[in-house]
């Protein structure tokens, strides 16, 4: 309790004029230079220091989710930086805010789906693949009947196999951490064609959710780990946008190819669907990217 009688307990970090303590350790003497960032992130959330095996699996997940090219989150970060180059935090936040049920959020959705199936199972968990296959088959059948998607199945780019999935499964096996969530996820991959009538790949975001759940991390926070990983990738996109900007090209490609389409009952429409006179877009300007409209690009990108 402080001198004024107030008390706000925390098991994370505190400081005084001469020391900083984090997780019960002296930050400068015990942690700096001795603990990796992934290990520390796990420790901060779980409240316990991970084993070397857990750290390897956890950091593999972070690497797997760091970047996936020009996703909507990356484009949002780049275009926000284009609009507000003085606000790196705004660009980073814009990308992170785009993490949801279609991009990045599958990590948590899959982890929760698997955890719910395991929690609802009566009796001891299966001891072999046959038992997990039966459990997976029942879960997929129930989801299909309720017209719900099974998270972690399918990918818009990797139609046959997501290259991240077998690698993470193998590393988890090596480290003795291929637990019930991963085993159930693998079973879903084996049996889903019987219910869905087609074969879909187990995607990387889904296997990451299963691996994080097997590490004992709270399923309600799994999206946070995906965002933690993607923050590094987004910062990389912002850095590349400074070195080799494409944001203006993206903006111009969309803006200069926008076509007005009249809504039914629009007073400006003559019924033909054609744009009103004078509404056509001007031609693409001849200035190089970053200078359209007389606005010079940030000096750091020149």
TrEMBL record:
Gene3D superfamilies: Citrate Synthase, domain 1 (1.10.580.10), Cytochrome P450-Terp, domain 2 (1.10.230.10). SUPFAM superfamilies: Citrate synthase. Residues 264-281 have a biased composition (Low complexity). It is an enzyme of class 2 (transferase). Keywords: Lyase, Transferase. Belongs to the citrate synthase family. This is citrate synthase (unknown stereospecificity). It comes from Sphaerisporangium aureirubrum.
């Amino acid at each position: 309790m402080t001198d004024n009688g107030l008390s706000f307990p925390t098991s994370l970090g505190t400081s005084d004029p001469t020391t900083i303590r984090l997780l019960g350790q002296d930050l400068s003497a015990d942690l700096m230079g001795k603990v990796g960032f992934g290990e520390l992130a796990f420790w901060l959330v779980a409240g316990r220091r991970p084993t070397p095996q857990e750290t390897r699996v956890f950091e593999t997940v972070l690497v797997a989710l760091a970047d996936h090219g020009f996703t909507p989150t990356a484009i949002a970060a780049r275009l926000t930086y284009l609009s507000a180059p003085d606000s790196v935090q705004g660009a980073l936040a814009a990308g992170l805010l785009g993490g949801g049920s279609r991009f990045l959020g599958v990590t948590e959705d899959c982890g929760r789906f698997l955890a719910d199936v395991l929690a609802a199972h009566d009796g001891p968990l299966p001891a072999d693949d046959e038992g997990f296959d039966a459990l997976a088959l029942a879960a997929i059948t129930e989801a299909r009947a309720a017209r719900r998607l099974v998270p972690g199945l399918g990918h818009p780019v990797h139609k046959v196999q997501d290259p991240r999935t077998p690698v993470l499964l193998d590393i988890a096996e090596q480290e003795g951490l291929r637990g019930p969530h991963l085993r159930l996820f693998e079973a879903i991959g084996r049996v889903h064609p019987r219910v869905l009538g087609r074969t879909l790949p187990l995607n990387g975001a889904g296997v990451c959710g299963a691996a994080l759940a097997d590490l004992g991390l709270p399923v309600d926070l799994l999206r946070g780990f995906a965002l933690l990983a993607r923050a590094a990738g987004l910062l990389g996109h912002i850095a590349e946008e400074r070195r080799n900007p494409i944001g203006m090209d993206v903006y111009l490609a969309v803006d200069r190819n926008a076509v007005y389409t009249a809504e039914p009952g629009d007073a400006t429409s003559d019924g033909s669907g054609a744009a009103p006179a004078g509404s056509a877009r001007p031609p693409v300007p001849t200035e190089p990217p970053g200078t359209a409209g007389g606005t010079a690009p940030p000096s750091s990108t020149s």
